Amino acid sequence: MIHSTYITAILIATFLSWASWFVVLYKLSPFSQPVLALSLFYSSLFIALAGTFVMLFYFLRVWVNKKEIYNVHLNTSLRQGILLSAMIIIGLAFQRLRVLTWWDGILLLAIVLLIEFYFSSRD
């Protein structure tokens, strides 16, 4: 089963990225090295969130659908997990820049939903 190899790799990468995010959170100061600390913070959080959402969406799809088409579930879950993680990271970056307002959040959500609707209509 090739999909179990992918799931195992995603689980390991997710665990390692959450561990690296906690290390960055507690060991790096954004005041002493702002570029390095912020880039590591956002990149490790993106990978951790994406892996978490991918696994959550994948197991939810398998549980609800109960079909044996696991790679379709994994592809869709991967796309949705990356889109949701990108939305959260962009929202956090906007908040750090102090430009996030409620209509920017709704616009960001609408963009992500339109991208997802586009890809799901092609499936």
Describe what you observe in this structure:
The protein has one domain (2-122). It has 4 helices and no strands. With 123 residues, it is mostly helical. Helix 1 runs antiparallel to helix 2, helix 2 runs antiparallel to helix 3 (70-96) and helix 3 (70-96) runs antiparallel to helix 4. The model has no long low-confidence stretch (mean pLDDT 90).
Decide which structural class fits the backbone.
mainly alpha
Distance linking N and C termini: 23 Å
SS element count, helices: 4
**Shape assignment:** flat
Instruction: Work out the count of structural domains.
Output: 1
Helix content: over 70%
Compute the average pLDDT: 90
The run of helices and strands is HHHH
The count of DSSP E runs of length 2 or more, i.e. the number of strands, is 0
**What is the rounded Rg?**
16 Å
Strand proportion: under 5%
Main sheet characteristics: none
Q: Spans with pLDDT under 50 lasting ≥5 residues? A: none
Short summary:
It contains 4 helices and no strands.
What keyword list fits this structure?
123 residues, mainly alpha, 4 helices, 86% helix
